[in-house]
Automatic annotation (TrEMBL):
Its EC number is 2.8.1.7. Keywords: Pyridoxal phosphate, Transferase. Belongs to the class-V pyridoxal-phosphate-dependent aminotransferase family. Csd subfamily. Residues 1-17, 44-57 have a biased composition (Pro residues). Residues 106-475 form the Aminotransferase class V domain. Its cofactor is pyridoxal 5'-phosphate. InterPro entries: Aminotrans_V_dom (IPR000192), Cys_dSase_SufS (IPR010970), PyrdxlP-dep_Trfase (IPR015424), PyrdxlP-dep_Trfase_major (IPR015421), PyrdxlP-dep_Trfase_small (IPR015422). Residues 1-86 are annotated as: Disordered. Residues 18-27, 34-43, 58-67, 75-86 have a biased composition (Low complexity). It comes from Streptomyces axinellae. This is cysteine desulfurase. It catalyses: (sulfur carrier)-H + L-cysteine = (sulfur carrier)-SH + L-alanine.
Amino acid sequence: MTTPEPSPLAPPGPPVAAPAASLGAGPAAPPVADPAAPLGAGSPSPPGAAPTVPPGAAPTAAPVAGQPVPPGATPPGTGAAGAFSPERARAEVPALHRTVNGHPLVWLDNGATTHKPHQMIEALSTYYSAANSNIHRGAHTMAREATEAYESGRAAVADFLGAASPEEIVFVRGTTEATNLVAHTWGRDHLGPGDDILVPVLEHHSDLVPWQQLAAERGARVVPVPLTPEGTIDQGAYADLLSYRTQLVVLSHASNVLGTIPPVREMTALAHRYDAAVLVDGAQAVAHLPVDVQELDADFYAFSGHKIFGPTGIGALYAKSALLAEMRPWQGGGNMIESVEFGRTAFASAPHRFEAGTGHIAGVIGLHAALDWLSGFGREAVAAYETALTAYAQDALQAVPGLELLGPATRKVGALTFTLAGHTPEEAARWLDDGGIAVRAGHHCAQPALRHYGLDSAVRASLALYNTREDVDRLTESLLRLCEAGGGGSGGGA
């Protein structure tokens, strides 16, 4: 009798329990690192070099994708006592140790995409080098291994979001595809002439454009919900706009342009009084604060893997099981059927009926590794640290003459969007890039939100758990030098 070899994609042990959900970013937390502590990751390494480990910290061994942490070993992302530290997070993210234009990289474009821990990178490599196979229906060992890893990833996402079951998770390319899936399935069956879709002015284009397209086709209306001067959703106006014509409310758990965290649970409860469904865009929230979709009572919740330290081209849509059961398939093909005849086709049950063709198998495995990495730090600890760092950054930027920070909401993730008198956003971003500081300039796919402030463009610096006060100080100092240089200066690192 042959003893089977262990799978290189062995499913993990018991998943990390999701912490209690919070709609804010500052829950009570276990001990966390002081944002004022000096960066301990040493000098930046050249591109491709192994990440530097902070002095006194034990190197974290990279587990093979999906394998449980050996007994007695320290889970990735945790210290001896399980406390979060940004230095450890930095040490495990190789891209943060490169230089740009002769300066150590300061990555402040996390709202667009996050950098990846080596555990996630190695998970992808392990899949492609040792276990590459298509999933489902394969009779051979590697197909079984890949299928188990893929479905283990689905269970990990369900646990991460607090879903009742893995069957409530559909894999998609990202938040945009998730929104389009809901529009083309649930939306086509529930929206008709005279129906309203409420979308706050704060929203990303992907939360607006698919519904504009569907509303034009079905005779429905997209109704904007206005903002307050502080950049929050006007709750009085929202309550007034809701009616029994409202079939859907679409809102972000955190704004990509202002960082604002709306009261999602309360807004959802109010929408449900009118029998309206609620779709929550969690793309900017899941990396920064704990999420429990059952506590939120969201009907749909979507996020993108690349904004939570995972691969591009993968994301997830959560939907309540009763909704998924009634939703028609979106795309047709393999992997989403039970049987096919020329006269009829019987579709698979949810979630598989929404995953036509060969999915992003490696992406799911990489996403699983990224979620394990983030969860290992303790979600409340990360949220508390980022809240403190965001407050520090808001205070520090006030020292820059002519800088106007948009959306001074008290409840927000670390999106710092601003204008600088005498300089276009593009000029400011180029200056910062000269000094190795990566920010984003433009309309941030949220033009209605910027027009609320009379703007077409702005600079956005966005924070993540591996950023430090040192990063914020370099941003502030570079902007101060730009102000001193006036309109003719160049070289943000000068």
